[in-house]
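User: Please predict the structure of the protein below. I'd like the answer in structure-token form so I can feed it into my own downstream comparison script.

Assistant: Understood. Taking the following sequence of 326 residues as input:
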Amino acid sequence: MEHTRIPGTDIAVSRIGLGTWALGGGVGRGGDAAAALDAALERGITLLDTAPVCGFGRCEALVGQALKGRREDVVLATKAGLEWDERGNIRRNASAKRVRRELEASLRRLGTDHIDLYQVHWPDPLVAPEETAEAMYGLLEAGKIRAIGVSNFSPAQMAAFRREAPLHTDQPPYNLFERAIEADVVPYCREHGIGLIAYGALCRGLLTGTIRPDSAFAGDDLRNLDPKFAQPRRGQYLEAVARLEALARHRHGVGVVQLAVRWLLDQAPVTAVLWGARTPDQHAALDDVFGWSLSAEEHQAIEEILDETVTDPVGPEFMAPPARQA
């Protein structure tokens, strides 16, 4: 396992973080939180990322149960800024009042007295970033959180936020297929010393090599809404996966999963990559991620594969939750 520090802090983290979204809701939901955490710790994973909206509190509660007796073994990250109603409708709300209330609820569910990295889940168009930042800074000063992050923020929103509070990390969707942030977010974070924690590393399973042309997803699985999984785009992405798999096998004796994660770890300023394992056996794929890097020639080959196969790319915009009405 590779380790680093959250920029601007003394908080050491593993470069792979356990993302718990799928445990409480999301893609292929379900799993054993305690067993998944056991397997993560055994492999040196210390960063644990969750959020209240995942399973509407259920995911944080599962994580809290799994952490009993070993809270100090992990760097605990969670989020604020989304609310939901009794029907499960999600809306953005990053008001100062909401942020402070969410923190107290998260502390109760997680069974802890502080959060190591507290992140604003989505920007709220009805709330100035400065208001949210001021609330976050107050929590930092009070010792209830140790570092401040945002997620899904643009450079302009991060700049406004930084007028009122330090900003240590940004968590955007980032993977071989979703790279729009390279035009603005990545250079902004690099310039200002902000760590990048990538979520969606395997693009909701597309980069696992297990998705087939006829794969179906049950119920409210998010992939039923993702345009990448609808034809003809699905065929384009699967062709890219097949060629990336062949490259990975030929050059490094690994699969497309390992290639996708290694590619992210090699990108500056990526601090950590979230890994959404739901069961202990799903951590095994990480064993072949470390101890090697991609050459410049291999990076060029990857670009050529993507250019030739994915002729109608689409990003993760469909995931954005709606704003509240003014």
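That's the full token string. The first strand starts at residue 3 and ends at 5.
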